[in-house]
Amino acid sequence: MATTTPDTLPAARKLADPQLLKRRYAAERRYKAYGIFAILLGFGFLVMLFTSIISNGWTAFMQSSMTLDVSLDADEVAPGGKTDPDSLRRGNYSKLAREALYKKLGYAERPDRRTRRKIHGLLSRGVDVQIRDEVIADPSLIGKTIPVSLLAHGNVDALLKGSISRDTPSDRRQLDDEQVAWIDKLVADGSLKMGFNWGLFSQGASSQPETAGLRVALIGSFFMMLTVALLAVPLGVAAAAYLEEFAPKNWFTDVIEVNINNLAAVPSIVFGLLGLAVFIAIFGLPRSASLVGGLVLTLMTLPTVIIATRAAIRAVPPSIREAALGVGASKMQTLFHHTLPLALPGILTGTILGLVQALGETAPLLMIGMVAFVVDAPSTPLEPATALPVQIYMWATSAERGFVERTAGATMVLLLFLFVMNAAAVILRRRYERKW
């Protein structure tokens, strides 16, 4: 039990002073309030961020389309009677879609030029591709009248979603009163409906928001993450294991460690410049290819994997190594049979977090030209592609109203992938974690 000596008596009396205790308790309450305020402020900004993204982006997962009875006139679809795919691609499918819409709106004959131009503004410019694909898939449809679900124009889609206000004067609205009346008529008879936008995931780049999709970006991101996982993980774990278990402790390894820590803090755009100078300029790899993007992101992710793996290996108790070596195991056997398995939770966590960081990078990919306008999905990592964050950047810089919701919708998809990967890191760590 502590005793009070004459030397400590003044200090004890001072601590017992009611005024001093009151000030100490008040200071503790203030610090606690500061902490709560900081947490609430951060949480408030997070809620504002997600509210803004979701409110602007949920409509991107819905798309307007109209069902029309399209007459596949052989003279327009297959001039000369040729039904091979190359000949069918040259058919005038836009004309067929427009004539079907004339009839749907009650025009027995072709309307005047001004009316035709306004009617054409109700259909997407991608309807010819939709009809063409159906004809190429089944040439026996030529000469028949078939119902086809065609995409509505982006302005029509925006009107139905409320992005274009009906209260705006007709002369300042993208759709005038006559076009709005036609839209209401199509909605009333069930021809124009809103459905899930599968095209957001199945279509590639397009200058029209209603036909733009994430397919190329998703495949490009998959190829890049596969490259990073196959290169950064084994190289990073091997480098960390060597530095931690085998490398001699001298000035040379100290320099290596300092440089690894410095590389983890280098701006990502520097890695893009490195990839541009080395992989494209020197090695001649194709520009805008997923492989180049994966190699650049591998260089950027390696320091993170090495640092996390070294920390996980260092956290394994020395007694584990000593016990293994004491029963005759070699250093390699100790590493692979004991140290690495026990360090696995930390290695997995660091690796997944490194992949998450790589998935969300944009700047290095811009430097290697992954902003290409790619319509067809790549089948190999050497073909031109883009990535999810780059696609978001490109849509955000587009002037069309429909790309605003596409930008927010793509951001929601990217955040979903990041959330899943972070959740996987937490689950794996808790599942394999051991407490000493």
Task: List the SSEs and their pairings.
Blueprint: H1 9-15, H2 18-57, E1 62-71, H3 74-77, H4 85-88, H5 93-104, H6 113-120, H7 127-137, E2 145-151, H8 154-161, H9 177-188, E3 192-196, H10 199-202, H11 215-246, H12 251-263, H13 268-282, H14 290-314, H15 318-326, H16 331-359, H17 363-367, H18 388-396, H19 402-432
Antiparallel strand pairs: 1-2, 1-3
Task: Explain the overall architecture.
The chain has 436 residues and is mainly α. The chain contains 19 helices and 3 strands. It folds into 2 domains: 61-197, no CATH class; 215-432, Orthogonal Bundle (MetI-like fold), CATH 1.10.3720.10. It has helices spanning 9-15, 18-57, 74-77, 85-88, 93-104, 113-120, 127-137, 154-161, 177-188, 199-202, 215-246, 251-263, 268-282, 290-314, 318-326, 331-359, 363-367, 388-396, 402-432; strands at 62-71, 145-151, 192-196. Strands 2-1-3 form a 3-stranded antiparallel β-sheet. 33% of the residues are buried.
